[in-house]
């Protein structure tokens, strides 16, 4: 344990924070749009969004490798045009986390927006509010509890992502060694004390995240019940 460094912790928090930011923005946009619009093929697109929930992480990672590898559709273009390599970098870990955690954010946000009473939004429109103002003053505040739940769960999922990250980012000490990676390769090397340390750290982070979410949800429900009295 004397040689232990905290790079995996720092990198995991960095990857989870960046990926959660992207997931929140895009999940918010798509969830609101899909909850208010109906069009041909909507179910197909939504099924595609949720696909990473049911696919093995290695399959997701393989698909990302096809897209972002040097000979991939996106990765090849980035390499030839900007000399940017995605595979085997911390950016690859971010992309993997975005893909696997997006369904959690989308599901939570979609449920939150669909549970909003549409009459409240229409009332704001009849008073002259623009769609942008309706969203930020009515829809977003009412959906916030569900959005926050999705945000927290997405962060926790990004923090613990392993399979897709291994396929796309690989394991490079000091560069792509997130906590799940550090645990796996510590066990492979027979460094059980080191692996146990990182297991305790990530369990504590995940448990704290879920505990805080449960506490906040119950507190919000009590406040809502008191406001209705």
Describe the model.
- It is a single chain.
- By secondary structure, the chain is mainly alpha-helical.
- The protein has a single domain (7-228), classed as MetI-like (MetI-like fold, Orthogonal Bundle).
- It has 10 helices and no strands.
- Helix 1 packs antiparallel against helix 7 (131-160) and helix 5 crosses helix 7 (131-160).
- The longest helix is centred in the C-terminal third of the chain and has 37 residues, at 192-228.
- The chain is globular and about 65 Å long.
- It starts with 6 loop residues before the first helix and ends with a helix.
- The model has no long low-confidence stretch (mean pLDDT 91).
Helix content: over 70%
Main β-sheet description: none
Outline: globular
Q: What integer is the average pLDDT? A: 91
Distance between the termini: 56 Å
β-strand amount: under 5%
What's the helix and strand layout?
Elements: H1 7-36, H2 42-50, H3 57-68, H4 73-82, H5 90-114, H6 118-126, H7 131-160, H8 163-169, H9 179-188, H10 192-228
Helix pairs in contact: 1-5, 1-7, 1-9, 3-5, 3-8, 5-7, 5-8, 6-7, 7-10, 9-10
């Amino acid at each position: 344990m004397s040689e232990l460094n905290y790079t995996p912790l720092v990198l995991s928090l960095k990857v989870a924070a960046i990926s959660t930011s992207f997931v929140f923005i895009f999940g918010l946009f798509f969830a609101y749009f899909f909850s208010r619009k109906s069009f041909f093929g909507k179910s197909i697109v939504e099924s595609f969004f949720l696909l990473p929930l049911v696919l093995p992480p290695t399959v997701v990672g393989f698909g990302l490798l096809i897209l972002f590898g040097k000979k991939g559709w996106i990765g090849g273009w980035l390499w030839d045009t900007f000399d940017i390599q995605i595979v085997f970098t911390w950016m690859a870990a971010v992309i993997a986390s975005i893909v696997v955690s997006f369904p959690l954010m989308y599901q939570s946000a979609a449920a939150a927006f669909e549970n909003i009473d549409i009459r409240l939004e229409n009332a704001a429109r009849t008073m002259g509010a623009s769609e942008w103002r309706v969203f930020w003053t009515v829809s977003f505040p009412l959906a916030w509890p569900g959005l926050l739940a999705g945000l927290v769960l997405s962060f926790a999922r990004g923090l613990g992502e392993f399979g897709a990250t291994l396929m796309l980012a690989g394991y490079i000490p000091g560069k792509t060694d997130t906590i799940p990676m550090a645990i796996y390769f510590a066990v492979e090397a027979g460094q059980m004390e080191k692996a146990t340390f990182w297991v305790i750290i990530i369990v504590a982070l995940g448990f704290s995240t879920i505990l805080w979410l449960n506490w906040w949800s119950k507190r919000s429900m009590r406040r809502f019940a008191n406001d209705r009295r």
